[in-house]
Structures are given as structure tokens and as C-alpha cells.
Amino acid sequence: MADRIAGFSETNPETQAFWDAAKEGKFLIKKCTACGKSHWYPRAICPFCMSEKTEWVQASGRGKIYSYSHMARANPPFTIAYVTLAEGPTMMTNIVDTDAAKLKIGADVKLVFKPSEKEYPVPMFTAA
Amino acid sequence: MSLRGKSYIMGAFEHPTRKATDKSVAQLHAECAIGALADAGLTKDDIDGYFCAGDAPGLGPLSMVDYMNLKVRHVDSTDVGGSSYQVAVGHATEAIAAGRCNVALITLAGRPRSEGMATGTAPRAGNPAQPDVQFEYPYAPTVVNMYAMCAARHMYEYGTTSEQLAWIKVAASHHAQHNPNAMLRDVVTVQDVVNSPMVSTPLHRLDCCVISDGGGALIVTSPEIAKTLKRPLVKVIGVGEAPKGQMGGMVDLTYSGARFSGKAAFDMAGVKPSDMKFAAIYDSFTITVLMQLEDLGFCEKGQGGKFVSDGNLISGVGKLPFNTDGGGLCNNHPSNRGGITKIIEAVRQLRGEAHPAVQVKNCDLAIAHGTGGSLGSRHGSSTVILERE
Asked: Is the omega angle on the peptide bond into residue A76 within 30 degrees of 0, that is, cis?
């Protein structure tokens, strides 16, 4: 069965760099140089200390499944998940190209960019 | 200043419809207002405060105030989804205590069933300016798969089972059989629930609430006005509200904002969970109930599965009768927002006006708890504790 084509909303000035990098196959997250913490979803202003000194850093693309849910009755079926990145933050995503019956919370996953309905690919994960 | 005892819920009305193809949303709001006013023994001209949320058509409260032609001096349209109505009771109590109004009307109505809305299973794009949307919409978050991820994590952390979750639906169905307006009146078993089609792992169809048209309304008054009315006195003794989200990426799906809103309400009321004779708990899904019971302090975190098993939530059978109208799981979830119906059933129980088959004996203390938005991403949580005076 064909993969679900990811929907896409809109970029904005705060996030354009993330999506431009995605087009080049780079997965960025935001890190605060004031408090040193990484966060998700990316913001100009750190959600932990409210510093404006946040910078884009390239993430490893490695993570573990925090939770997931598979919708076999959707057309086409898909799996939504939260993945905890090696850098710390947990992000909403899809698990793709993996047998849903074999998924486990805690399992290692790695980044794969998948096309969306617009020009920007979106970060998803597959079994590592 | 404590808000304890500063207001009373003197009118409560649940619209009997579950499918309203022949009515408008505004009309349903107004019909609920008529019902609650009649219940309280008040008239339209007595209302001086109006409270609604995002289900009210128009800009905040403005269109509904104009439709009903209300002359009010205080309005509030705080929208935190299905938990908005517990918040409205709290905010109405604040307004009454501050002298900003004396008779507050709260309404909810909607018709997702008539409009054929795929409430639980359809991803919605939302407003692109909402900062999380561009990082979530691509992954097709729906109502059900978000709550399902909470259930999956709860099972992983605490060993909670589908059978334990099923007991929550079983209890609701035992109550709904006595409610002639309930959408699902057949008593179901644990096996019925776990054998129903899997919608979004690990939640089955019968783990989900109904999709219904309808609505409800409440009249909240000052103590002075309450004591002039002929209805039983249902006093607001505790309120609390707390939003919870993804915490900058430190996502923790094992608990809800009820941990905070419940504590605030219990502290204000000066009572504890074990004092509650009846619990109205938001039940969009079975997992919603289980997590909120833990977070409100009815049992230890992680022990919710054991707590709800073996009929413990069934009136006359278990220790904590819950949602004796059948709740959102079996009775009614008007406008996809179940907060107000929780308060309405709590008021019925405290008045002794619940169905005799499910009425709790000597019901003098009750909790009505709401969750709004998505437990799996960002949600509102709100708690009201009520006492029969």
C-alpha cells in the first residue's frame, strides 16, 4: 500500500531555517546558549529560560520510541509516535518503513526525511 | 480570599437531544439556557453574567449574548476545550465573589453528529499561526491517536492492560442502561470492549466516547440569591485549573494537569479524594478516566488499572460511583466537549435527582473534573468540588 503523503502547514520567519535545512537533508533542533538546553518544537525563545539566545544545531537523527499508536484502519495505515532524540527533547513524528507489529516503546530509531504535500520534506523515523 | 462557598449551582440542564438535524447551534445554546433558567426558577432578566467557550458561534460571547438579547455586565469566553465549563464555574465564582455579577449563565452546545464530523479520527490542519502546527500536522495527529499514545505509555510504565481500561466502559454502560436519553444503553462486558475493532493501538472502538449533538447549561448564583430559590443548595467549595503541554520537549504522557487542578480544588475545599461520594470524570476515552483518577489522588500513580477493575466505578457495586448518567462513553458528548455534562450529573447526584437505580445514598460531596484539548499534546484540566448544603 502506498505511504501516506504527509500534510504540511506553513513555514514562518521563526522556522524557515529549519525547513530550508530539511530540503538539504539536514535535521536541525534549537539549543539555548544561555541555559545550554535543547528544546522541541523549535522556537526563537527558549522555553526553559526565555532567553532569545537560541541557535540551530544539527541533531544526530538518533532516538528512541517514547510512545506510539498505529491506525491500521486509516487509509493508508500509519503510525504516529513520540521519539526521544539523543539530544534530549521528545518530538511528535511518524514511524515509517517498519512493521507496526514489531514496534516497541524504547526501541532505537533513526531519522529519515519523507516528502510532504508541499516542497518541504518532513523528519520521520524508522527502525535503527 | 478563598472562593470556597462563594457561589452555588442552582440551575442545571442537559439537552435531551443526541441528534439535532432540525436545529441550529445557537438555538441549542438558547434551549439549554431556557432549561437551566427553568430549573433554577429564574428568568432571562435575572442573568447578569454570561460564560461560554469555543463551541459558541461568533466572536467570543458576543453573538450568543446578542442572539439571546442578554443584558449582562460580565462575560468570559475562556476556551480550553471540553474543560472550559469547570473553568467557567470557577471564573463565575470569582466574578460573583468580586461583585461583578450575581447570576451567571454558562452554555455549551453543538452538533458534530448532524454535521458528520469525523471527530476522533480525522487530522485537522488548524491555524498555521499556532506555533506547534507545522511540527505536528504532518504526522496526522488525531484525537484518538493522541490519547492512544497516553494509553500505550501507561501500559509500558505500569503494566496497565486493555482489560483494566475496559472496566471503565463496562461501568459506564451499567449506568447508561437506566438513562433513556443515552446513545449506548446496552450493558457491555470486558470481552465486548477488547473484542471491538482496534481504532488506534491500544484503544478499541468501545474505549472511545460517543459523538453526539446537544448541549447543556448551568446557572451559578451568589449565596444570597441561592437562598431565595426553591432548589436544593449545591455549593461550590473548590475550583482549580491547570493547562499542561509538552514542556519544551520534556514530554511526559503519564500524568495530566489534573495533578495540579485537583490539588488546588481539594486544598480550597478542605476535603480529600476519599471524602467524595460521587465522581464525574471526563471520559473522552477510557484512558482519560484512568489517568485522571490517579492524578486527582483517588489512587496511587500507576494503580489506576487495579482501581477501576471489578466494577469499582459502578454505582451500588464499587467504592467510587462515577458518571452515573453513562458519561461521554455511553450517554452524551455534546459538541465533543464533555465538561458540562460532568457538572450536571454531579448536581443531579447532590440533589438526589439522579436515576433511582444509580443514585448514590447520602450524596453530599462530589467532584466534577474536565479535560480539554488533547491529553497527548496539550490540554486544559479543571476541577470543581461541590457540596450539598
From this structure: yes
List residues bridging with A122 in a β-sheet: A114
Total domain count for chain A?
1
Q: Using one digit for the tens of pLDDT, what is the confidence trace for B286-343?
A: 999 999 999 999 999 999 999 999 999 999 999 999 999 999 999 999 999 999 999 9
Bridge partners (DSSP) listed for residue B19: none
Tens digit of pLDDT for each residue in A35-79? 999 999 999 999 999 999 999 999 999 999 999 999 999 999 999
- Residue A11 domain-assigned (yes or no): no
Do B38 and B187 lie in one domain? The reply is no
**Residue B249 distance to chain A (closest CA, Å):** 4
- Which residues span the domain enclosing B148? 140-211+238-388
**Residues composing chain A:** 128
The minimal CB distance from B201 to the residues A41, A43, A70 is found for A70
- Interface contact flag, B125 A7, Cβ < 8 Å: yes
Residues B182 and B292 occupy one common structural domain: yes
Q: How far is A93 from chain B (nearest CA, A)?
A: 6
**Residue B84, in any domain of the structure:** yes
Do B277 and B165 reside in the same domain of the chain? yes
Is A69 close to B198, i.e. CB distance below 8 A? Answer: no
In a domain, A9, yes or no: no
Residues of chain B with pLDDT under 50: none
Is residue B127 within 8 Å of B137, Cβ to Cβ? no
CATH number for the domain that contains residue A70: 2.40.50.840
Helices and strands per DSSP (H, E), number in chain B: 11, 11
Q: What's the grid cell of residue B12? A: 442545571
> pTM for the complete prediction?
0.97
| Pairing assessment for the beta strands A122-127 and B203-204 based on DSSP bridges | unpaired
CA separation for the pair A114, A96 (Å, rounded): 9
Residues of B in contact with A80 (CB under 8 A): 139-141, 145-146, 149
- Structural domain including A99 reads 16-127
As for the ipTM of the complex, it is: 0.98
Max Cα–Cα distance, chain B, nearest Å: 56
For residues B221 and B187, state if they share a domain.
no
Number of domains, chain B:
2
Judge whether A43 lies within some domain.
Answer: yes
Asked if A41 lies within 8 A of B249 by C-beta distance, the reply is: yes
Distance between CA atoms of residues B200 and B209, nearest Å: 14
B337's enclosing H/E stretch is none
pLDDT given for residue A1 in this prediction: 54
